[in-house]
Write a structure and sequence with these properties.
The chain is α+β, with helices and mostly antiparallel strands. It has one helix at about 65-104, and strands spanning about 25-30, 35, 35-45, 50-55. One of its GO terms (biological process) is intracellular protein transport.
Length: about 100
């Protein structure tokens, strides 16, 4: 971009998130919790005027993960989902066992 931007002009910004250790985005897992990531962008000009924008990072939008890295990300997502489901199953089993001991 050359020169000063005009009012209302869009300035494209690209931020690569590969260097950050982010887990997959989960929404309403077992209706108990969700994980979401937000990017707070603050631009300050020479006159100390600030423009602020809060953006939600949605499911891998804007992230390119070619080849081996993509396979690693998919494996990590699958592992995380499996661990989460295992925890939910264990919790349900504990609840059942407690109900059975209460009935006896």
């Amino acid at each position: 971009m050359d020169g000063q931007p005009a009012r209302g002009e869009t300035i494209p910004i690209r931020l690569f998130l590969g260097g950050f250790d982010l887990t997959p985005t989960f929404r309403d897992v077992n209706k108990k919790f969700s994980t979401r990531y937000y990017l707070s962008l603050v631009l300050i000009d020479e006159a100390a005027h600030a423009a602020e924008e809060r953006l939600e990072k949605s499911k891998n939008r804007g992230i390119s993960a070619p080849g081996k890295l993509s396979a690693q990300l998919e494996a990590e997502k699958k592992k995380t989902r499996t661990m989460l489901l295992d925890d939910i199953i264990k919790e349900k089993q504990i609840e059942r066992n407690l109900k059975q001991t209460d009935l006896q």
